[in-house]
Amino acid sequence: MSCWSKNQHHPLRELAALALLLSAVAASGCTNGARMTTSSQSTSASTTGTSNTASTGTTTPLITISNVLRDQFNPNGTIDVIDTSGAIGTYCIGTVSSNPTAGPSSCECNYTYTSNGQTESISVPTTYQDTDLLKCSITTIPTTVTSVQVSVTVTTQSNTSSPFTLNFQTSGTGLDTTSASSFSQVLRYTCRDTVYIPDSLDPSSGIYDPLQSEDPKISYPLDFYATNLGAAINAYAGGASGVAPPTYWNCPSNPLSPPSPFHVTLYSQTALNGSKVISGLNSDGSVAAMNAFNPRSTFYLANSATGIFSVPINTYYAPTLHSYNASAGTGLPPIGYGASPISGSSPGTESCPNVPIPAGYAWVKVWLFRAALPTRVYLKSTAFSNLGNIDCNPGPYPKLSTTDQYSNASDNTDLPFNDCFNLNGYASVTAALTAGAPITNGLTTPTATLVSRFFEQTGMCVNPTAGGSSSSSGNLDAPYSSLTPTPPVGADIWTPIKATLSGGNTGYPTAGVGVYSCTDPSTNAAGVNLNDPVNLCKSTSDDLPNDTSPTTQTIDDPASPRFDFLFVVTPQTVMSGDMSNASSPVYQQYAPYRFRSDSDCSALDPDAAGCNLSDAFTMYGIKFYDVGSAGDAPSSSGTATQSFPVCALQPAS
């Protein structure tokens, strides 16, 4: 499975980058250096799309404006000025040497308009220019202005074009809102973050713990939305101007048909028409494409602001990349535009506009839900980090005495492994040798073998075998975590020396007795090694080193809370009064919840299937405000910033 990355070749990325170049992605709405003059004269508005015949005296204009449009990506903050003769590329030369297409340049835009009975004139620098197109900010023009005369001055030659009148009330980007081609489906896809959790045996080594790092309870997919997946991939890979690519995220190579770890089914709190599935499963329970038609998740937005479709819908476009600050010049436009509903005669009621829309489509309402995600933690162990080196026995050691090939009766500290034997019933190494039992490193089938591992700072000897699974939940085990998934049969199980006591402590091991065995050398008491930090002598039947009292380490920064956002669709007959009441039966038919992934639950009815709801995110709450404020309106905003519900389109099923 491949994932998106900044340097990875992806055909969608190149297509998106080309599309962005051809459409001249919105540049910064900079207004520094604007100049304003006013007078008491009033100016009547001209018809939109007509070029006035006013001249600049005897001087021939260098630039002839053929059209002025509100910018497709930032219609409320930028205009596009077009001269098809190529004069803009000749005379409007960028002054930023590192990026000459980005403004300012040797040209500026001039605006003349009427506000409060006075004629005002403003000049602003350009924000983008190429062969026959330049962009200028309109954010300094009062929102009450209905039309503006636009001209362009080549400042290096004091030459000004004839004016062109732009009517804000009727002008747009030329979309036909009765054509289905003017709208795009909003697509949901998922990505999950890449989490690094250090290996508990040696946290400073740089080796990561794969089971905890990739545990689905720690690294799970979140939801993102786009109408142009190519543009989303392009922005993710660092192809959007002014947008830093995110790091440490893993996205599926095909977002529309993700593999199991990324596929997330959405459910509703209660069933609607017999179904709780909002998206993700077919009616027979088989896995559906993430964006297969479902009346509670499918909706279309206008491709640009046109007519009544003027409400920008912002979202998390890709991991960490949101579109709500597009006016600040990030290059990420809203994913589309919806229409504001019309307030009804009763509080908490509203309806969608009664205007022509594409044939085969109906009005729907779109609502935003947000869930605050719990802070994630992982298990760590001081006992493991203080365990010390693990030595591996490569084979037989040199003979130290004529009596015993492996230990010295007068000094049992000559070798680190001199007590690391599995005697298999022999009273001592000498007894095994006397019986002719070979003592090998385990490469053959011995009667008495050297165990292959030794914990230096503990004196514990272990011998790996195969089989078993992790020990009881709540312990931190090595080399495997007790978190799911558990180690498969065949995992490396570390068995300490646990032979039955026999004989006395003679300075070198007898069966089960010795400095490094699971006994107390001073008392010959079994199973009470005085230096057993990872509970080898007290381990479960699985014989895994384990820490029964691990500590937790926080993964997430509490100062940067994590959220998951979801859009839910209702018929236009569902009212905000219903959706404002979490106990309303109507609300519960649309309020979403999800599991971390379909590995936790993938069933038409999670209750009947016995899925564990404690694994689900059920805390989604409705938000009437844009994601730009993390789903909540600023305290001083009142109702002016309310964005939802928004009216959108849905095709007939």
Write up what this structure looks like:
It contains 8 helices and 41 strands. Helix 1 (11-23) packs across helix 4. It is mostly beta strands and 653 residues long. The N terminus is likely disordered. The longest helix is centred in the first third of the chain and has 13 residues, at 11-23. The strands form 13 sheets. Strands 1, 2, 3, 4, 5, 6, 7, 8 and 9 form a 9-stranded antiparallel beta sheet that branches. The chain has a 4-stranded antiparallel beta sheet with strand order 15-14-38-39. Strands 23, 37, 40 and 41 form a 4-stranded antiparallel beta sheet that branches. Helix content is 8%, strand content 28%.
Note the gap between the termini.
33 Å
What does the average pLDDT come to? 73
- What is the approximate shape? globular
Low-confidence stretches: 1-33, 37-57, 325-329, 394-418, 439-447, 466-475, 478-491, 499-516, 633-640
Portion in strands: 25-35%
Query: What would you report as the Rg, rounded to the nearest angstrom?
Result: 36 Å
H/I helix tally:
8
Largest sheet: 9 strands, antiparallel
Q: What structural category arises from helix and sheet content?
A: mainly beta
Percentage of residues assigned to helices = under 10%
Number of strands: 41
